[in-house]
Amino acid sequence: MNEIDNEEINKQNESFFSNSGFFLLEDIKDVDLQKKKELVQTEIVNKNYEYKHFEDFCNSRKQVNGNINLFSLEELKSLISDFVKLHTPHPQSGNYNNPQFINIKSCKLIEKTPINDKVVKISITNPKEVQTSFYQQNYTSYDVHTDLTLWKVNRRFSDFIWLRNTLTKFYPGVYCPPIPEKKAGPARFEEKFVEKRRLFLTQFINDLTKIEIYKSSEVLIDFLSTKDRNRFEREKENFDSKNEPALLEDNWSFNGQVNLMEDSKKIDNYYKNIGKYLDMQSELLDGMRDNLKLYYTNINEAYLNLCNIEKGFKLLNELNKKYSVREEVSKVYFELSRFFKNWKSIQYEQNDIIKRYIKRFYKYTSMECKAFLELIQKRNDYKDNFVDKNTKLKEKKEKLWRDKNINDWEIEKLNPEDSILLKNDKIYALDKMCTSETKNVNNLYDMLCYLNYTLNEQFKIFMNKQSQKFMINIKNFTEEFKNNLNKAVESWSQIASLEIKK
Question: Mean pLDDT across the stretch 109-119?
Answer without folding.
Answer: 89
